[in-house]
């Protein structure tokens, strides 16, 4: 069922509802609180799960993500809508364009007679924002017109200034030019007709979408509420950003990285205190995380003696859907759901692993929780600027730099492994090296994970 936003009954037929939201579908009821529905049973324990391929793991995440009902909704001013997700389809409030619009500076003419006679008498001038007040354009006549102005009655084309020669009040068509009916004219209603859906619910509102909403009078928009995301970093070696680490310690960068990624994906991050490598600390903080829509953990998911995250999650009755993916970095990634609670993702502690596994798996689910319709990770392709080699067996997502041009190329960024934050910052994407391909020759296409 598709839920649309709620307006109190006292305002349902008010001028407020008719004006502020006239460009969106009117609501019927409040959506049910989030509660995921899963179609099949999964193992309760993590030890028996096999390593999944990247495609298998992503398909599993998307299967769960598509089971969510629509989130709650709220109305916000257009000025605050950037990055939010539309909760009700945007409607054209009138035909777009509302008149036959000139797309060039030139002369409005009857194409048939002007093409035959190849000259016409200029009878006036029409700038944008004005309506022609004279009589209809007759054969042999023309009106000088500006880009964006309504084409006068009797004219069905606009000849460009550059394609005519003017002498006094007469113009002549250049000898090497022709003119067809409809040329340089956008017909009324050709972009949209009044009442037509021009942007669906679930669309993320970027600059283009904001401009479209403004053009149809969308001073306020119905948007989905942003999901709340708990972020829990684990490890005795971690200290806060404000602290000076001892030689055996590191600052907690993953919480800040994940918080930024959550904001970019449309969520609201909530950073929990750092969890120590003890069951009690992990258990207490995981119980705090239950109140959120999604839980993101970093660290503690590998096979070390102090990697206790999966054990504590199991003790709390969590379901595990995968506990490892045949990718690098990010092989120990974990996906599951707390008992009667939110879904969770366990990211490996190395910073590059955290960012890669978030983009591949957590971001699609976060987008779904926020009501977005486009869930999958963003991939593109570019030509290899130099040969790329790797050991086959795992699908690798390696820091790379996309050199933007009309013929884009990509090259790997030298790095010291998945803990190399500096190399990760020098990159602007990740090159995807297939598990069954040892070498990508220079010039061959490379798939890129965008960020």
From TrEMBL:
GO terms for biological process: Mo-molybdopterin cofactor biosynthetic process. GO terms for molecular function: metal ion binding; molybdopterin molybdotransferase activity. Its cofactor is Mg(2+). Coiled coil: none annotated. It is an enzyme of class 2 (transferase). Pathway: Cofactor biosynthesis; molybdopterin biosynthesis. GO terms for cellular component: cytosol. Gene3D superfamilies: MoaB/Mog-like domain, MoeA, C-terminal, domain IV, Molybdopterin biosynthesis moea protein, domain 2, Molybdopterin biosynthesis moea protein, domain 3. It comes from the Bacteria. It catalyses: adenylyl-molybdopterin + molybdate = Mo-molybdopterin + AMP + H(+). Residues 230-368 form the MoaB/Mog domain. Keywords: Magnesium, Metal-binding, Molybdenum, Molybdenum cofactor biosynthesis, Transferase. Its EC number is 2.10.1.1. It holds the Pfam family MoeA_C. The keyword Kinase does not apply. Belongs to the MoeA family. Catalyzes the insertion of molybdate into adenylated molybdopterin with the concomitant release of AMP. This is Molybdopterin molybdenumtransferase.
